[in-house]
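COMPLEX REQUEST
Ligand: NAP
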Amino acid sequence: MELQEFINNFAEQFDDIDASALNGSTIFKDLDEWNSLVALSVIAMIDEEYDITLKGNDIISATTVEDLYNIVQSKK
Amino acid sequence: MIIMTYNPYSLEGKTVLVTGASSGIGQSTAIECSKMGASVILTGRNEERLSLTLEKLEGTGHSMIVANLDDETEIEKIVEMASQLNGCVCNAGIGLGTKPAVFYKKKELEQIFTTNTISSILLLKGLVKRKKLINPSSVVFTSSIEGNAITTIGNGMYGMSKAALTAYAKTVALELAPKGIRCNVVTPGMVKTPLTAPTGELTQEQLDADAAKYPLGRYGNPQDIAWGIIYLLSDAACWITGTVLKIDGGITLV
Ligand SMILES: NC(=O)c1ccc[n+]([C@@H]2O[C@H](COP(=O)([O-])OP(=O)(O)OC[C@H]3O[C@@H](n4cnc5c(N)ncnc54)[C@H](OP(=O)(O)O)[C@@H]3O)[C@@H](O)[C@H]2O)c1
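STATUS: Structure written out below.
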């Protein structure tokens, strides 16, 4: 799994954000569109694409997109 | 000393089958039914936890049947082994976690409907066909406020299975009324059971804040639901069929 591919999948969960607007250091909870539905979608995407089950706490403990990527990596 | 003999809510002399009796609401319902005088037939998959429930029952004449309701032949086994019943509580059910609708998988949909909806439909079908429910008798389904009174993001699969169960209960209430079989539904709000035990998705502060939203100040205890079910099983509810009893601490008012 590569960071860029993860960013693309992550961006897919938003309606109005393009992957090009995001990078590893984006603080995703500061994004206007970030809400509980997007959070659930990100968890479901990670389950579907990477076969890894995240908990709400994993989302809480991550700040940047790369933090989340690293959490997924660590559970592989 | 005054001896209380007048009690239309008593289950004295009644035999009641309870599904999902190895845990949570079903376990509490079985225990409370026994305290109200019923003989209880417990069913669930986990033999060890089912035996624990059996030990906690008061009075005599109780029994247990280990069975998986996802399997039609095991439902048939329950029907076969059950004695004549005055009551049946179709309570077994599962969650499947939360996810947005665009991520549902066919397998998950099949699983949730099989356990939460179809198993109760097939169980009642078998009991009626084999004339195990006497006239009069009472069937109670444990549905949920989710899908019936509220809709929350991520809970669609669970909500659909419970809304379908309620719709079924109303139809079958109508169809079984001539046989003297009443069919009613309880829709609980959030009740503290293993099903809803914190899994780390929400912090304790988030949970406390959520419980504080309930007008009656707390989440439900399994007994709160058991007592509603007992009412619907009892002769006090003899003119009630097809009703949906919300037991939710007032949460659907806010
Ligand atoms: N807790 C709540 O907040 C809440 C709110 C609204 C509605 N409800 C509903 O209330 C009912 C009871 O929930 P609960 O909170 O008491 O949950 P629980 O503690 O997890 O108990 C569920 C019960 O269902 C049984 N069960 C599950 N799948 C089964 C299967 N395939 N075959 C046979 N038995 C099966 C389990 O038995 P084994 O473990 O032995 O298999 C267990 O006894 C469910 O229908 C649930 O949807 C609960």
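REMARKS: The longest helix of chain B spans residues 106-129. Chain B touches chain A through twelve residues (CB under 8 Å).
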